Amino acid sequence: MLHKRFFKTKDEAEITFEFAHPDAQEVCLIGEFNSWQPVPMKLNKKQGVFKCKQRLPLDQQYHFRYLINGEFWDNDHKADAYEANSFGTENSIVNTQRIN
């Protein structure tokens, strides 16, 4: 799930990526915005959800995915959109356009 926060004085959005998976011991966020390098997400034990915040420039869209336990890929089930990738699957997309 994606939560977006926009700032009045900054040309960026703070995106909170949240992901839950019943078998996950570890989840990493991987996307265009971090050169496809794994960023470990923190587990909120109370909510049973892995979370990670990223600040991204406004008016862009970025492909991303989640890597579970270092071996399984999954998408955000509430992403803004999905697009086919070169591996025969789809990437999740987050859009940072401010909607008034």
UniProtKB/TrEMBL annotation:
InterPro entries: AMPK1_CBM, Ig-like_fold, Ig_E-set
Transmembrane segments: none
Domain AMP-activated protein kinase glycogen-binding as annotated: residue spans: 15-97
Organism superkingdom: Bacteria
Protein name, UniProt field: Isoamylase early set domain-containing protein
Species the sequence originates in: Pseudoalteromonas marina
Lineage: Bacteria, Pseudomonadati, Pseudomonadota, Gammaproteobacteria, Alteromonadales
